[in-house]
Amino acid sequence: MKRLWVLVACLLLAPSVSSQMNPIPGVTLECESGPHDIEVHPGSDRTVNVECVVVNDSIYTESVGISVTAAGLATAAPGSITLPPGGEEEFIVTLRGDEKMSPSTRNVTVTANVNNINGAPCVTCEPETVEFNVRILQYADLSVTARTGTLQMEIGTTSEVTFDLHNEGNGKDSFSVSIENKSALESIGFSFSVNDTGDLDSDERLPFSFTVSASSDIPETDVQVMVKFVSDFDNSEIQSSHFILRSDGAPESLIEIGSDETALLYGAISVAGLLIVILVIFIALRSVRRRRVVAFDDEFDDFVDFDDF
Known about the structure:
Elements: H1 2-13, E1 28-31, E2 36-38, E3 47-55, E4 62-70, E5 74-76, E6 80-83, E7 88-96, E8 104-117, E9 120-121, E10 128-136, E11 142-146, E12 150-153, E13 158-167, E14 175-179, H2 182-187, E15 190-193, E16 205-214, E17 221-231, E18 238-247, H3 260-300
Parallel strand pairs: 2-10, 12-18
Antiparallel strand pairs: 1-3, 3-7, 4-6, 4-8, 5-7, 8-9, 8-10, 11-13, 13-16, 14-17, 15-16, 17-18
């Protein structure tokens, strides 16, 4: 019964208006449907603005309260709007997320409630609501630090290189790894065994290693190895690091096998050897001959001198 009297009072207070106007107080509310995206990477404003419009299609002057709910997001909007009969007004709902917020979808509800009509409280007015979604976007970010400054390689050996990775993005990510100057390094005798990283959660740190092998004929080397890390989520996120690859190379042979000089040297060695053998035999024979002469001299000393007779 009370509501009926309020409605009658509203009708008595209403001015003469067009027949198209609604005699029942209330509003309509519309907002951009979305979904609306918020970037939360460091340096971004982390906000999104959504346009809404509230329309008073009644015959009364209305005071309309605006409220916004959005789980985990800061919101800003006009607290109240006063509309004449048939009037409308656009307003902005601003939504803001936290830096490095996890990727997610948030539901937002905007409510318009007629508080007063022609200065009197409206106890029969029903709130008008609009819902839309806001997406917190994932972004990729990586920091890389090389643990290995200089890798000393011996010929025919395999060693390991380690980097510290830190996924500074706001979501799970993995990274492709490649050697930028790999072809040039392989051409001088190095080879690499490199795999992509596994998944790293947001803010996770992980040591990442791969192996380097040196062939048996690498030259003396002191070269920078460039290593590139690319986000699988966002290929535009690229980080590079480097280390020094050093080798003294294979020892140089004094004699090059198969050369003409080698053949001549071997021939000279053979001739010299033969001469030494002949010389040894000659010395040995001469020594034997001298021993025989001495022996004969001793025997003749035992004979009686014929002149004594």
